[in-house]
Amino acid sequence: MKILISADMEGATGVTWPADVLPGTPEWERCRPMFTSDVNAAVLGFLDGGADRVLINEAHWSMRNLLLEQLDERAEMITGRHKTLSMVEGVQRGDVDGVAFVGYHTGAGTEGVLAHTYLANSITGVWLNGVRASEGLLNAHVVAEYGVPVVLVTGDDLTCRDAAVYAPDAVTVAVKDHVSRYAAVCRTPARTAADIRAAAKQAAALAVRRDPARGGPYTVELEFDAEHLAMYATLVPGVERSGERRVAYTSDAMYEGIRTFKTVTTVVSSAVEEQYG
Questions:
Q1: pTM of the full predicted structure?
Q2: What does 171-216 look like in DSSP terms, one character per residue?
Q3: So what's the pLDDT on residue 178?
C-alpha cells in the first residue's frame, strides 16, 4: 500500500493568520514544526495501518516548508515548486492507493481559517460545474481520474465539513475550530498529533484503488475582486469572460482543468498591483 500526502499549511495545527504561513517570517518559522508534526503523525498512522510507503508532496506556497529532518525515516518527500500536478504531484505515477489532504482549508469567499483558493486574495470564488470549489474539491477530482480515493482530510472544522462534499467516506480531523478568517480555537500539537495518527491508521483501510473516474466535461468559473484581473485571465487560451469580474473555461478532464487553473492563477497574480489589487 502506498499513500500520497498532499500537505498544505493553512489548515495546520496552530496556524491562524497570514504571517504563520508566509515563508521567511518569525511566525512561519515557529509554525513549521507544528505543520511537520501534523504530517509526521499522518505518516506514522498510515504505517501503523499497514502502508508500505508514504510519499509526501509539499503543497504550500514555496513548497519548501516542512522539516525533512523531523519526519519518520520511512517517509519520502517531494519538495519544491514547478510540478506537473502541483498540489497532488505524484498521483500520476500509477502506484498510489490513497491520498491524504493534510493541513487543508476552505475555499475562496467562504468561512474558514485563512480561506482561499490558490491565491491568498484576488479570487473571491471558484465553481466547478456550478458547485462552490475549494482546493480540496478540485484536487479530489484530479486524483479520482487516477482511481485514487481521498481517505483522510485534516484542517479546521469547516474544512472537515467541506470534505464531506468531495470525499464523504474520508476520515477527518479538526485540529482547530473556526472563529474568523484569522482566529481559531486551537488544540495543542501533542493532542492533534495523536488524533491525526489514530485517524490515519483508520483511514489506511480505505486506501483501495478504484476505476479511474471519467466525469467530464468540467466547467470551472472564477470570480475576482477586480475587473482587470478577469480581463487578464482571458490571455490564457480557452478562458472567456462570463461576467464583469468572472471568467470560465471547460476541460474534458480534470488533468487539463487543474493545469489551466494553475496557469490562470499564475497569469492573474502577475497583474495584481500592490495598493489597488
A1: 0.98
A2: EEEEEEEEEETTEEEE--HHHHHHHHHHHHHHHGGG----PPP---
A3: 98
